[in-house]
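This is your field. Have a critical look at the following sequence-structure pair:

***
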Amino acid sequence: EAAAALVETFVVAAAGEVVQRRHLHLAPASDEELLLDVLEEVIFVLDTADDVPVGVAARTGADGGLDVEVQLVDHAELEATGAAPKAVSRSGLQVDRAPGRVWCRFLVDL
């Protein structure tokens, strides 16, 4: 959901078909570091691919890290609403867990 919120700061996703999936594994780390790594991957894909990441699925890996799938849609299926993010600040990065939910906060640099 955090990755989707990041993307929604600069595009409106239409009902486009996923045209590519990228997979990566993140080593075990704190919740904040894992969140930062996922968001940085979304920004990296924005900078290097013709398609736009609109979804992220993550599962706990065998080593306690995360196995992540980034789903991309053709940029022609999206409506730009603002500037693409350039980075996520470590300042203000926060992840809190409570029974049945996880809450996060992050600052986006444009």
User: Anything to note?
Assistant: The first strand starts at residue 11 and ends at 13. Helices lie at 2-7, 31-48. Strands lie at 11-13, 18-26, 51-60, 66-74, 78-80, 87-98, 101-109. The chain has a mean pLDDT of 91.
